[in-house]
Amino acid sequence: MHKKKRHLKFAMKRYLAPMRGLTEAVYRNTFSQYFKGIHMAISPFISTVNGKISNRHIKDALPQNNQSMPLIPQLLSKDPAGFVCVANKLFDVGYLEINWNLGCPYAMVANKVRGCGLLPYPEMIDQFLDSVLHKISCQLSIKMRLGRFQPDEILSVIPVLNQYPLTMVIIHPRTGIQMYDGSPDLAQFEKCLSLSKLPVIYNGDIQHYTDQANICKRFPSIEGIMIGRGILANPFLAEMIDDPNVHKDWNRLKDFHDELYCQYRNILSGPGHVLGKMKEHWKYLSQGFDDCHRILKRIQRTSSFRQYDSCVVEAFDGYLR
Ligand SMILES: Cc1cc2nc3c(=O)[nH]c(=O)nc-3n(C[C@H](O)[C@H](O)[C@H](O)COP(=O)(O)O)c2cc1C
């Protein structure tokens, strides 16, 4: 058993989920400017190849670019040496905790025994943790699915994790091959919770402001909640969870959209990149509009800023005060 101490037990925290291509620094900072209710974010994964980290990822993770929301950078790796090297670089720039991705479901990742591809191999996870934990200066948490192929793979992984002083284990109760289909397997999550000696955070399908309370009622021992798609679709969600009297303020939403768009226009070059980014956001954001399919279809077809701007005006038409 390693000797590092766990964090002090924290009150129920709400985390912004890592979503590659969406919840990078631009989104996190703009979100914090307009909305409340999220206490911390985990960054989308950073691959550690030979201990190298791309300039784009360094910039996104630098503390000076993440002043508005506390951040835990996430690493995707099966290579202990590369992991240790990047983790210690992140510690040197000021991060006290990093997160290890054991959930990424994409075949390109999982076939290389990374992300959820490691879950069928608890002994590899054990070796990895045993070799990295005493070499990294920061604390470590894990984000995982139930398994790659089977929801009970996790039942052999949790006893391994229990041996290490991890700060928390975030569980998204689906398998990798399930991707995002079906519902989170709450019965299996319950088994994980009873097996785990580590703080557990629940993640998956928190979409409505009553969902967090229902999860907490059923699983009173969880130490936090993580929300991804629900926040992207409705950035007011965390505020609504804290105060059910909060209503969607369309003017605030439009201002948020405009600022996000402006920030992407400042850092990305050309309409292709900027609109590509905004279209990804609209896959979620459009869900809050009555005519969501038509709006999304129209936005997806735009290829110039002029077309995009007029689609956005049309989308918000009738909602603004
Ligand atoms: C487009 C997209 C990108 C994602 N990127 C990451 C990632 O980089 N790291 C990670 O651990 N999970 C990633 N996830 C998974 C989410 O963090 C989260 O576990 C999942 O969406 C379930 O939570 P939700 O129902 O609240 O969205 C991603 C999910 C989506 C849809």
TrEMBL record:
Active site residues of this protein: 104 (proton donor)
Q: What is its EC number?
A: 1.3.1.-
Per UniProt, FMN binds at: 74, 143, 172, 228-229
Stated name of the protein: tRNA-dihydrouridine synthase
Q: What class of enzyme is it?
A: oxidoreductase
- The keyword Glycoprotein appears for this protein: no
The cross-references to InterPro entries, in alphabetical order and at most eight, read:
Aldolase_TIM, DUS-like_FMN-bd, DUS_fam
- Functional note: Catalyzes the synthesis of 5,6-dihydrouridine (D), a modified base found in the D-loop of most tRNAs, via the reduction of the C5-C6 double bond in target uridines.
Classification via Pfam families = Dus (PF01207)
* Nucleotide-binding found in the keyword field: yes
Q: Which organism is it from?
A: Candidatus Magnetoglobus multicellularis str. Araruama
Which Gene3D superfamilies does this UniProt record tie to the protein?
A: Aldolase class I (3.20.20.70)
- Similarity field: Belongs to the dus family.
Required co-factors:
FMN
- Give the record's keywords alphabetically: Flavoprotein, FMN, Nucleotide-binding, Oxidoreductase, tRNA processing
**Residue stretches making up the DUS-like FMN-binding domain:** 16-308
Molecular function GO terms recorded: flavin adenine dinucleotide binding; RNA binding; tRNA dihydrouridine synthase activity
